[in-house]
């Protein structure tokens, strides 16, 4: 098994990520998140929100609708120009992304060996209908990016908060793309979450702001524990640039299936605000409070994919130790990211005094962090189970606990154990979590 296959298997076995619609044979490029995958996603989103929204005075949060007026997508250029190049097999009629075929030097259908068509352009926006009639007039699109909800609320934020330039609007939410592609687990899926900022600036500042945001994006990835060594920057060629962008840099990560986009940073100019102003008839210009001059702010867009972040974290966290007495697989998540922070074990599952004490500890800690309970099998096995889900610390209640109110605290990475007073546990874990930020 290669590393990705090992991670896919661990994710399924231990409750991180399950194949979508599995009991019906699956639905390609869709995945469901189990208890630990859900916690991980929540942690990443909370850390992102903390970093970019809560800890800054110049960025405003938003939660826009998934369904927007189709006029939005017309004005933004997505209906005409948001296109993926594809080739279709003339025998089995399966479709493949041209970049996937080119990357692998494939000239014939990878499924049946049939002849491939010329390149065709395909719009990956999902369509659905509002109301009881299914026709052109009732067609709406599931958003393929969160950004547009931000542009169409630009005036609302200005009117409510009167922010001076530069300022940003941030949003986390689901986006949908009808992706025609080969797997790679959660790297490319039909629905995914984006964490995006539209940062509004004066045109003359764009290069400085672009460089600043590029550094910020890398800093954020590092703060989560993503390995800097695996990150590279790649600027889009003119041919590759999206219809709205003047400059785009991908922050790429060395995935096991190739070095590919983790995050994207784009200079969207004043393209979106200008188009929405012209098409809606609503003036979306910003007024300089001193000179009273009206102008369209330019935009720098840092865009982060949640699932790709999760995949990079899983890949960086995956460790295997083969030494006889230490044989184990463990996920070395930074404690702030780990889905469970502490696991609590009574040494024996049938000793009521031990269970009572362990339950008390569970109740004391659980209002503060996600805690696991495990009383199944011997302690060694329980440690291995927690290692596999990346729990940084385990607490064991044993017979000495009943005498001296101490417990064993075991560290995931060093496997070292220490005795700690029950009364000190909460502070100890709070401190350890706080220290792990550095
Ligand atoms: P790619 O070139 O891989 O198709 P993209 O350039 O179309 O990606 P963007 O439009 O820049 O992607 O979207 C911003 C971010 O959203 C990406 O950096 C990525 O993290 C995430 N993303 C985009 N499409 C998907 C998808 N189908 N599945 C999961 N994440 C995605």
UniProtKB/TrEMBL annotation:
Its main location: cytoplasm. InterPro entries: aa-tRNA-synt_IIb, aa-tRNA-synth_II, aa-tRNA-synth_II/BPL/LPL, Anticodon-bd, Anticodon-bd_dom_sf, Gly-tRNA_synthase/POLG2, Gly_tRNA_ligase_bac, GlyRS-like_core. ATP binds at residues 177-179, 187-192, 261-262, 305-308. Substrate binds at residues 97, 145, 192-196, 301-305. One of its GO terms (cellular component) is cytoplasm. It is found in: Cytoplasm. The keyword Cytoplasm applies. It comes from the Bacteria. GO terms for biological process: diadenosine tetraphosphate biosynthetic process; glycyl-tRNA aminoacylation. The keyword Translocase does not apply. Keywords: Aminoacyl-tRNA synthetase, ATP-binding, Cytoplasm, Ligase, Nucleotide-binding, Protein biosynthesis. It catalyses: tRNA(Gly) + glycine + ATP = glycyl-tRNA(Gly) + AMP + diphosphate. Pfam families: HGTP_anticodon, tRNA-synt_2b. Residues 5-335 form the Aminoacyl-transfer RNA synthetases class-II family profile domain. One of its GO terms (molecular function) is bis(5'-nucleosyl)-tetraphosphatase (asymmetrical) activity. Homodimer. Belongs to the class-II aminoacyl-tRNA synthetase family. Catalyzes the attachment of glycine to tRNA(Gly). This is Glycine--tRNA ligase. It comes from Candidatus Shapirobacteria bacterium CG09_land_8_20_14_0_10_38_17. The lineage of its organism: Bacteria, Candidatus Shapironibacteriota.
């Amino acid at each position: 098994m290669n590393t990705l296959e090992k991670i896919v298997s661990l994710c399924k076995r231990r409750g991180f990520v399950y194949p979508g619609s599995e009991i019906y044979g699956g639905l390609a490029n869709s995945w469901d998140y189990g208890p630990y995958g859900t916690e991980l996603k929540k942690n990443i989103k909370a850390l992102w929100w903390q970093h970019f929204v809560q800890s800054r005075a110049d960025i405003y949060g938003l939660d826009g609708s998934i369904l927007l007026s189709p006029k939005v997508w017309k004005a933004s250029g997505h209906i005409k120009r948001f296109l993926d190049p594809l080739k279709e097999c003339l025998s089995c009629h399966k479709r493949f992304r041209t970049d996937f075929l080119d990357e692998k030097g494939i000239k014939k259908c990878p499924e049946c060996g049939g002849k491939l068509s010329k390149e065709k352009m395909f719009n990956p926006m999902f369509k659905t209908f509002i109301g009881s009639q299914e026709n052109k007039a009732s067609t709406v699109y599931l958003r393929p990016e969160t950004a547009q909800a931000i542009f169409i609320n630009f005036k609302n934020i200005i009117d409510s908060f009167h922010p001076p330039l530069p300022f940003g609007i941030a949003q986390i939410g689901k986006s949908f793309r009808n992706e025609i592609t080969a797997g790679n687990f959660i790297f490319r899926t039909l629905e995914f979450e984006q964490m995006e900022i539209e940062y509004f600036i004066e045109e003359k500042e764009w290069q400085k702001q672009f460089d600043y945001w590029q550094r910020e994006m890398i800093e954020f990835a590092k703060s989560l524990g993503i390995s800097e060594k695996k990150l590279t920057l790649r600027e889009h060629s003119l041919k590759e640039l999206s219809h709205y962008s003047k400059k785009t840099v991908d922050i790429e990560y060395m995935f096991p299936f190739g070095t590919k986009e983790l995050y994207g940073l784009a200079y969207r100019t004043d393209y979106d605000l200008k188009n929405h102003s012209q098409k809606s008839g609503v003036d979306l210009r910003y007024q300089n409070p001193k000179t009273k001059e009206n102008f369209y702010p330019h935009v720098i867009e840092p865009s982060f994919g949640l699932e790709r972040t999760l995949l990079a974290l899983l890949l960086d966290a995956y460790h295997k130790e083969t030494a006889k007495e230490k044989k184990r697989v463990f996920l070395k998540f930074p404690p702030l990211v780990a889905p469970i922070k502490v696991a609590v074990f009574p040494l024996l599952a049938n000793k009521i005094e031990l269970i009572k004490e362990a339950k008390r500890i569970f109740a004391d800690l659980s209002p503060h962090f996600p805690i696991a309970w495990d009383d199944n099998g011997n302690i060694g096995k329980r440690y291995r189970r927690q290692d596999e889900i990346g729990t940084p610390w385990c607490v064991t209640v044993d017979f000495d606990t009943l005498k001296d109110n101490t417990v064993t605290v075991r560290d995931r990475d060093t496997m070292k154990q220490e005795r700690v007073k029950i009364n000190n546990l909460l502070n100890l874990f709070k401190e350890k979590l706080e220290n792990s930020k550095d």
